[in-house]
Amino acid sequence: MPEDHDWEAYKVPPTRTPVVESTTSVPNPANFFQTVFGYTQDTAWTLEWIERQQSKNKFYYYHQKFRRVPDLSECLEGDYLCFFEAEAQWRRDRMVDREIVEIVRERLGACKQREGPNEFQNCAKEVELLKQVTKAYQDRYGDLGYHGNARTCLMKQKHRMMEERKAAQ
Questions:
Q1: HEC secondary structure over the chain
Q2: By the 8 A CB rule, do 97 and 141 touch?
């Protein structure tokens, strides 16, 4: 490797950054307001005022509550807004039911991990609960596929009820 460097190819940055000189004698008002705003935001009374305002209006961002809407069977004919709301409600219900199944499955896995070789006798409640939950989920949402919707789910429930009536007679 050569000892002397080509200073023209790799120029050394200046040791001091030059100061930008203003072109007018009038000060910039944006700098003034920015400085004043910065000093006022750091004061204790400003922070206390913000905390008081936030304590008045509690906002829990982690629970979004939707009002229950009528089921698809309760919608009037041609009421497309009701159809849309019922479909959105059905999708939320399906998502909640899917999470319930997943939580019960995780609890069963944790019990099996915790109990080790005694899992069959000590985790019997969790196994039974998982069977019930998955059967309920399968009865309601099974065989609908990825593109299932509230209407096909309602028709499935109607057919299942008709089969149960025929079996009871």
A1: CCCCCCCCCCCCCCCCCCCCCCCCCCCCHHHHHHHHHHHHHCCHHHHHHHHHHHHHCCCCCCCCCCCCCCCHHHCCCCCHHHHHHHHHHHHHHHHHHHHHHHHHHHHHHHHHHHHHHHHHHHCHHHHHHHHHHHHHHHHHHCCCCCCCCHHHHHHHHHHHHHHHHHHHC
A2: yes
Query: One digit per residue, pLDDT tens: the chain, 169 residues?
Result: 556 666 676 677 667 776 777 677 777 888 888 888 887 777 777 878 888 888 888 776 677 777 888 889 899 999 999 999 999 999 999 999 999 999 999 999 999 999 988 999 999 999 999 999 999 999 999 888 888 999 999 999 899 999 999 999 8
Global model pTM greater than 0.90 = no
Looking up tokens 């922070």, which residue turns up? 47
